[in-house]
Amino acid sequence: MNNYRVAILAAIVLIILFAGAYFIYKNQVNKQVLTVEESPIPEALTLPSPSPATLPAAGQAQVDEQPQSGSDTVEVKNIGIKVGSPTGSSVISSPVTVSGSANVFEGKIVVNVKDGNGNVLGSGQATACMGYDACAFKTTVNFASSSTQAGIIEVYSPSGYDGSAQYLQQILIRFN
Questions:
Q1: Residue 147 sits in which domain range?
Q2: pTM check: above 0.70
Q3: Which residues make beta-bridge pairs with 102?
Q4: H helices within the chain, ranges in order?
């Protein structure tokens, strides 16, 4: 009977010691101040004009400032959607192959080919990654002939909430 009392008393003392150590640890963690330097947010990028001839090189908006390097930066691998092909001002014909890399909700990618009036000429879907890293996607879209010389390829991920376009990328193209 004495051995049980000693064992119970020892268990109570250990529980109190572990609880005390836990509360001291939590108190130390709460006292630490984590300082993160914020890099300046670049001014809003302007969209290129609807004419493919006036796009910057490769159809990409140019950023004047590179992110700061050092221990205060984090490598972001969740890029949303990045279209590799076709590039801006490309001349395309049906079918067109659209490829790139993405990391989006449920890995769903939607591709629409639109004419200059906003009419959808063709549509396709692709699968990418959902997680920490982006992975490649590729799809071929057949589309009807256009009555305009220029158009847009839209690439986006449908929202899981309401189906709206997330990570929308618009590539200005010309029709063959």
A1: 75-175
A2: no
A3: 81, 135
A4: 2-31
